[in-house]
Specification:
Elements: H1 9-35, H2 39-68
Helix pairs in contact: 1-2
């Protein structure tokens, strides 16, 4: 499968979509662990959620910069 260039708009949108999907899965996992009153499991889920949120924000920032430059 051919890879999209790193700074292409399609690549940025795919990156953002993948990050959003991972965050949604992690949030569902956090709700499940919180319901069982498992403090360590909840803390582990929150710790795993932080890099996912960070990568989504970075992809969104790159997409905004790409749009501001006129899509070049």
């Amino acid at each position: 499968m051919p890879r999209t260039p790193k700074n292409s708009k399609a690549g940025l949108i795919l990156s953002l979509g993948g990050s959003a999907l991972a965050v949604a899965r992690a949030l569902r996992r956090m709700r499940r662990t919180r319901g069982t009153r498992d403090g360590l499991g909840t803390a582990d889920t929150v710790a795993g959620l932080l890099p996912l949120v960070t990568s989504a924000v970075i992809a969104l920032r790159r997409l905004r910069r790409h749009s501001a430059r006129g899509g070049r």
